[in-house]
Amino acid sequence: MTRFNHVIVRRPGRSLAEGITSASELGRPIYERALEEHRDYVHALERCGVDITILSALEAYPDSCFVEDPAVITRCGAIITNPGAPSRNGEKAEIEPVIRRFFSDDQIARIEAPGTLEGGDVMMVGDHFFVGRSARTNEEGIRQFLDILNSWGLEGSEVPLRHVLHLKTGVNYIEDGNMLVSGEFINHSAFACYNKIVVPDEEAYGANCIWVNGTVIVAKGYPAVLRAVQELGYETIVVDTSEFRKVDGGLSCLSLRF
Ligand code: GLY
């Protein structure tokens, strides 16, 4: 049974406004509001019974508050990724010393060039890891990732992406066989065996929820998602992530949970 004891987050910097975005029509994030949303996010996680490591902002890396991308953490060890976005690649060197506080040398592996992989493309379902093949995560990165998993007695499988940035932009597992699916994942054969909560197009961003020790954290402003999750019997906490949405960020990419 999954249980998270630790969470790593990084405060956003003022440079968040320069983060990569596919949604420029939403405007640039407002730093003070992003900080407030981030504090609320941390408070929500605290309510879920985890220890939280809060890292300082890194102005040199506008997207570095999205700590989920430069590392993937499993129950057997941690994988330092090789982010496919050039402006984010240096984040791997910033996260590694933090990962080393929790894992020994033999529990740490790396994705090496020419492989690329970002943690937002990895969805953990027990000991199986679905990996999105995206503009950020390539075939070689996935090959290396699956080899590492196999060497630890874990397994994974590739899911090609057509439209979304990262796998978890559109599909998220909330334990107990329940999976939120939107857009291209609604009828995807890889997820046919799960109890699917189909997210309507107008709430697609809300598909990015996180399960933390029995509670599901849901983004503010997605009532159909919230209702569906509550009807499944979960405790829920709603957190506003609208400033992070402006730079394609969401609930899952704001933390590493393990
Ligand atoms: N702005 C988040 C990302 O593109 O990775």
Task: Give an account of the 3D structure.
The protein has about 260 residues and is of the alpha/beta class. It has one domain (about 5-255): L-arginine/glycine Amidinotransferase, Chain A (5-stranded Propeller), CATH 3.75.10. The protein has 6 helices and 15 strands. It has a 3-stranded mixed beta sheet with strand order 2-1-15, with helices on one face. A 3-stranded mixed beta sheet has the order 3-4-5, with helices on both faces. Strands 6-7-8 form a 3-stranded mixed beta sheet, covered by helices on one side. The model has no long low-confidence stretch (mean pLDDT about 100). The structure holds glycine.
How would you sum up this structure in a few lines?
The chain has helices at residues 31-46, 91-100, 139-151, 167-170, 223-231, 242-245, and strands spanning 6-10, 51-55, 71-73, 78-80, 108-110, 122-125, 128-133, 155-160, 171-173, 178-181, 195-198, 210-212, 215-219, 235-239, 256-257. By secondary structure, the protein is α/β, with parallel strands linked by helices.
**Poorly predicted regions:** none
CATH overall fold name: L-arginine/glycine Amidinotransferase, Chain A
What integer is the average pLDDT?
Answer: 98
Into how many domains do the coordinates divide? Answer: 1
Number of strands: 15
Largest sheet entry = 3 strands, mixed
Strand order of the largest sheet: 2-1-15
Total helical elements = 6
List the ligand species.
glycine
The CATH homologous superfamily is termed L-arginine/glycine Amidinotransferase, Chain A
Structural class: alpha/beta
CATH class: Alpha Beta
Shape: globular
Rg measurement, Å:
17 Å
Q: State which percent range the strand residues make up.
A: 15-25%
What's the architecture, going by CATH? 5-stranded Propeller
Measured as a percent range, the helix fraction is 10-25%
Give the N-to-C terminal Cα separation. Answer: 13 Å
Oligomer: single chain
Q: What is the ordering of alpha helices and beta strands?
A: EHEEEHEEEHEHEEEEEHEHE
